[in-house]
Amino acid sequence: MARLVDPKPEVRGAILKKLPAPFCDWEAGDVFVGAVEMGLAFSFPDREAYKSISRKTASGDYSDFEVEHLVAGYRAILRWPESFHDFLPGVLSDKRGDMHRRLGPFAKYLMWSSNYERPIARLLREEVKRVLTQDDLIPFGGNGIRAKWMKRTDRLTRNEAGKKFGVEPKLVARLGKEGCSVVRLGVNKDRLFYDPEKLGPSVAIYKSSVSGDECARQIGVPIFCVPALAQAGLLAAVTDHDAALMAQEVIYTEASAAGIANELRKLSVRSERGRKLTSCMELQFHPDAWADVVNALLRGEIGVTRMSGADHSPLSKMQVSISDFKAFRSTLQERPAPEDITIPSVTAGLLLGVPGDVIAQMIKVGLIRGLFQKRTGIIRLSDLSSFSEHYLLGGEGDARSGRRGFSARMRASGFESIAVVGKHWIWSRAQAEAYLKTEHIETQKRRAQGWLRSFVIVTSGESASFGGSSGRTTADFRASVTLKRGSRLSISLWR
User: Is the pTM for the entire model greater than 0.85?
Assistant: First the structure.
């Protein structure tokens, strides 16, 4: 180091030739200043300690500057740039705040570069920028410093990724530290980089997906049944890790949801008596039941008697064959309602055959266990199933008996209702079931009385005449029919 201040130019020139670039092209005095600057930085990596001694040396007080500090700076010059690359990561701080609070002894070369125009200042300033950018050690500081010098093509910030791929930055931020497209962390561990080559495909998958709510709307099933449709292979869940993180829920490919809806719309329509599918599916509290009915429709096991209009999802207004559905329902397995699934009051009303606001009122009066979230009643499927096990609504009684006025007949028979919510009567299921059984027996008796009490057939050659009395009226009747030789006559008459 003494040769750098030797009065003989040839001595100074000889030592300069032994130094690595760019020091070999500097003036000897600039190299000496560089050794002092780097000696201070390498010897006092702590920001506060460095500030204290650098203020003294800047004022000409070198009382605390030892020979070993100068030697440390000279050795850093001899190993340039490896010495700097090895040293810089160790002095960077994770503290929040502006850049000068996190760059240790090198902050002044970026924050106040106009005051340090010696070659060592320019060299350190550019090298700090290059190393931070190259090694993913970029501290996100204030005062617009980052935008001035950070040039990257292989990694993006949250805002840059949002702008590049056309999504809100908050969606990118949802990747957290677990995203597959997240690159190495910077100094501030709360701020991340994203690999555009990995993030781009994930964003594309996210954009081409739909939520469970949207799947339910497109197909016309309750929202709680969507996972069962996916498990049955009718819907395709998105498996991309980053796309799922951005959605923060299970999402499904838009193509699979639209595919089911289109297949259901293509089903042929029969001309026979039908009933609305949603009414047929009342009291089906297990998600798999809806997956089973969709599969049965696609296989043609349940005939369609009326299709939903173009403005509605295919299942929302669909009517199906009563006889086909009765046969299908007899094959359904008895499954207990899941304990971990909650549904809104509107969906609960769909399962019980009443409006959603009626369910909300039932929650308020304590008939159904539930709670309210932003004025929407939330009920567990298991609690709704438990309600159905103990109580029967008048609408169900009408459907079961095949005619209206079930609640009026119950009252006329002396039964007392549990409650009346709006226009809906609620009955004890045990009493209602007993009444329905009795009513069914009486109906069968009345029908039996309608069969003919007398029946006479008189044959003559190839013709036959018959007559009889219904037993309920005094009117007789007669008819004749021509038979082919060897044929048999089978007659059933019903009044």
Answer: no
